[in-house]
Amino acid sequence: MSQAPDLAARVRDAALLEGDFVLSSGKRSSFYVDKYLFSTDPTLLRD
Fold it and tell me: Model pTM greater than 0.85?
């Protein structure tokens, strides 16, 4: 069985931020995925 859905949920839990963000394009977003929050988590990288 694939572990991809579980891993995706763990990445979301670790890195999904909710709020009011201004993106580099100037557009606004109510959420942002900060890749550094999960790319520095050894347990997520191992899986």
Answer: no
